[in-house]
Amino acid sequence: MSGSSTQGIKTVLHPVSDLAKAKAVYAALLGMEPQTDSPYYVGFDAEGQHIGLVPDGGPQGMTSPVAYWHVADIEAKVAEVTAAGGTVKEAAHEVGGGRMVATVTDPDGNVLGLIQDR
Q1: pLDDT at 6
Q2: Which CATH superfamily is domain 71-118 in?
Q3: Are 104 and 87 in contact (CB under 8 A)?
């Protein structure tokens, strides 16, 4: 199989209904305070993993956790995945700091996140 490989799943975002309550639970689970703590996003960096809490599913309207695969070329990876039968859910776009994100779905509707850091 040709194409670009991934750098693995390093980010998982969780939609939450109550950010303060969820933050307390995840802080207890991970044994640390969040590194990013804002009204629209709380993020924990633990052992090479980034765990994010997104109130009310965020602008993407997430209804379940989404694992994000880190890739070197997000546009190429979106093209490869869609050529293989995936569907673009959220086109690649910048979310700040040069970070690009996109989501695609597999044939069963499972959401796959992609992240590219520049």
Answers
A1: 87
A2: 2,3-Dihydroxybiphenyl 1,2-Dioxygenase, domain 1 (3.10.180.10)
A3: yes
